[in-house]
Amino acid sequence: MNPLRTRCAVALGTLLASVAIGSLAPPSAASQPRELVVPSAAYPTVQSAVDAAHPRDRIALRPGVYREQVVIGKDLTITGAGAGKTTILAPEHLVTGSDGLNSIVSLGNAASVTISRLAVSGPGSGTCDAGALGAGIRVLGGAHLELSHAAVSHIKDTPMAPCFRSANSILIGDFPTGAGSATIQDSEITDYQGSGVVVLGADSRATLLRNVVTGQKTISTDGIEFVEATGRVEKNTVSDNACREPDPECGPDFFTEFQHAGILANTGVVVTKNRLVGNQLGIYGFGTMETSHNTLVDNTYFGLALQDGTFTAVRDTVRGGGGGVAVIASAVDTTARLDQVRITKVSGDRIRKFECCGFTATVTTRR
């Protein structure tokens, strides 16, 4: 027998066996997601665990208050012991992020981050002139947030003030450029100084499902806002968002004054099965969009306000408040089709048209 051939055959057999064994062996421990526990000797803070984590690792937060800012730029899962037990609290001095805002939790670097069973809370200690709290949770740089069974509360400064682009509970994307995305569900968003959830920019999107979004009664707020972004808003309860004194630019004139809304949405946003209670406007729509099966109760000016576009409202119910449906034409001819929309117990007009600058508002109804 040829010795060289024998040695080659043995070597080839050994190689094939090692390949076969490797293909059947479980992945190495290093490739498996780890769980990092906070606080622990190795990870006394949330940020220390985030810094040490590998992509796809899980971070478990024990009950307690973590007074710190957290910046996340990798794929992670962060889970608390419950929104009433685990809180990430704004520190006394906030560090400004890359977007120029001071936020408590910031996501960037195209990271996909899952956060659940914890609270993110203010207040901040800054002012409009210096150190104002920018957001509870900030999503930018192509990052994606999955938030569930959580609370974002007290996102405001001390004392409260209507700072521009300040104190939004959850801020996604940027305008005119910048992107972020989120799915937010089964969470409570309360006591904010600016807006509950803001989604900015044509490349940003969000799905909001079964959340409670509640403003407060001492300063002007909005509940949920989409600005050129797309998404879906379904089965949320949004309340107590309106103009508050002193706010000299607010009022009922759609052409010269501002109004605040429970949900403000534009083309590409589906708004369905929500409950809007005690806002100045229940739903304020722009562009081309459809609302359906929403319940709008005791909203001060109108339950629905539809401006500058083409709208269909299907089986929405307006009950109580100042008026039913406002259709506004200020920049384009506007049409609104009201399909089995029920309007009861309003103190003002059931349907009212506002027209300006040579543009017309047209309303058709189907009972």
UniProtKB/TrEMBL annotation:
UniProt-listed Gene3D superfamilies: Single-stranded right-handed beta-helix, Pectin lyase-like
Signal peptide from the UniProt entry: 1-25
Highest taxon of the lineage: Bacteria
Keyword Transmembrane helix: no
Keyword Signal on entry: yes
Record keywords: Signal
Domain Right handed beta helix: 178-337
InterPro entries assigned: Beta_helix, Pectin_lyas_fold, Pectin_lyase_fold/virulence
Protein name in the entry: Right handed beta helix domain-containing protein
Species this protein is from: Streptomyces nojiriensis
Classification lineage: Bacteria, Bacillati, Actinomycetota, Actinomycetes, Kitasatosporales
